[in-house]
Amino acid sequence: MWKEYVKIWFDFYRLKTGQEYVFDGQQGKHLKQLIAKVKTKVVQKGLEPTDENVMNSFKGFLSHLNDSWILEHLEISIVNSKFNVIYAKAVKSNPFTSASRIDDIIENRYNTGGATG
Q: What is the pTM of this model?
């Protein structure tokens, strides 16, 4: 599956920059760390960390990368080091997770969870 992850990154980089990415061992190390972080998030969400789930989550993570500074300095090492910030922004901007948070806020505020009070 490694080649698939590399291809996903190369395609993403080409889409964002119009250039081909130059890859070396150091970049490979950062990509492996990044994939491991994505896999951790898949597990935290209660999903099975299958290749398909991790790969789809990796694609989704990259598709939510819209920070202009990071995109102007697009390197695997930067994306890897800023993973938590990028992930938090992606979750915050996702309409599905926003709707879920709004439901939680309403339930807590108006106690609509079925409890009488």
A: 0.77
